[in-house]
Amino acid sequence: MRILINALSGNGDALMFSPILKILKVKLPNYFIDMVVMFKSVSEMYRYSPYINQIYHIDFLKQSKFKSLKQLSEIRKTGYDISVNVYPSNRIEYNIVNYFTGAGKRLGHKYINAGLFSGEFLNNVSVKEVKDRHNVLQNFDLIKKIVDAGEREVGGLEIFLSEEDENSAQIWKKKSGIEEANIIGFHAGSALLKNHINKRWDYRKYAELGNILISKYKSTILLFGTETDLNNRINELIGGRAVLASTENYMDSMARLKLCRLFVSNDTAFLHSAAAFSVPTAAIFGYTNHKELFPWKNRHIIIRRELECSPCFYNSPKPAGCKWSGADEFKCIRGIEVEEVNDACEKLLAGGGTI
């Protein structure tokens, strides 16, 4: 028997399925579990997972439709009994892929904010999306259609590193002269799809926070993400005392992130990756829903503005927007001050925070 996991979204959303993979492997030990991904970094992230037999990478965004269809046709020949759309997959393209797998049971969600042409009817086993329920549990609700499991069995997020990855991080740490115990990671960037550049807390505030943490704790600040220009601006404002930690190899970032004692980030894949390594996180939220996306089963503090209009971004193909304009535009993220994030960092470094 075979199961295909359609993890076509980015690393953060794909990572939210990792606790569910373990449940599937435990409950269905004789099943082969494969995964199809759209982003290379997702395939890298799951490469060493003990729960997956094979990963297919289809670059839907950059290659021709003909090539993508050819790859899907080869996958279909494998003969999957079950296919699962990782939550959230609220686009018709994802549901078409799920249908095209040819699996007898095709699992997917019915979304609160689904469009008229979302293609949800292409899935023949569905559950309703639940507002304010964490993404991990939304995935759990889905697989309960095929396994008998209780919510208490849902564990934490998992990323498996190779020995080579971990050794490489230690060599890099030594070459970079990083000796201090207080290694603190920042991710100031975000994805650009759906206008998510507006998730970002001001880079100048990150720099101010970095200067405070270096001064008070003799910290080393590691800057993560491929937004090189942004990280260079932050480093310049920190006086060149930060270290750029990311490379084109996603697992370099993951192994180096694991070295951190604290992580500060917008709502991004790096925030959730820190949770996978049990690194305490100061999570800065704007218009996305912290109740659905808080760092899962990890010590954290949420920093956000409680506005009557937020959260205003929901799972739909529509890009992020703001009802306000001018100086008030995206004030949910712009209004967060350095003192608030610094207070969260100090509490986390002292062992505080919520799990």
Overall SS class: alpha/beta
What topology, given as strand order, has the largest sheet?
A: 3-2-1-4-5-6
* Straight-line N-to-C gap: 37 Å
The SSE order reads: EHHEHEHEHEEHHEHEHEHEHEHEHH
The number of E-state strands comes to 12
SS field, number of helical segments? 14
The description of the largest β-sheet is:
6 strands, parallel
In CATH, what is the class of the largest domain?
Alpha Beta
Q: Would you identify the regions where 5 or more consecutive residues have pLDDT less than 50?
A: none
- Give the CA-based shape: globular
CATH topology of the largest domain: Rossmann fold
Task: Note the beta-strand portion.
Answer: 15-25%
Q: How large is the radius of gyration?
A: 20 Å
Descriptors for this entry?
alpha/beta, 14 helices, 6-stranded parallel sheet, Rossmann fold, 2 domains, 355 residues, single chain, globular, 15% strand
Description of the molecule:
This protein is an alpha/beta fold and 355 residues long. The protein folds into two domains: 2-153, Glycogen Phosphorylase B (Rossmann fold), CATH 3.40.50; 164-349, Rossmann fold (3-Layer(aba) Sandwich), CATH 3.40.50. The chain has 14 helices and twelve strands. β7 (183-187), α8 (203-217) and β8 (220-223) form a beta-alpha-beta unit. The mean pLDDT is 95.
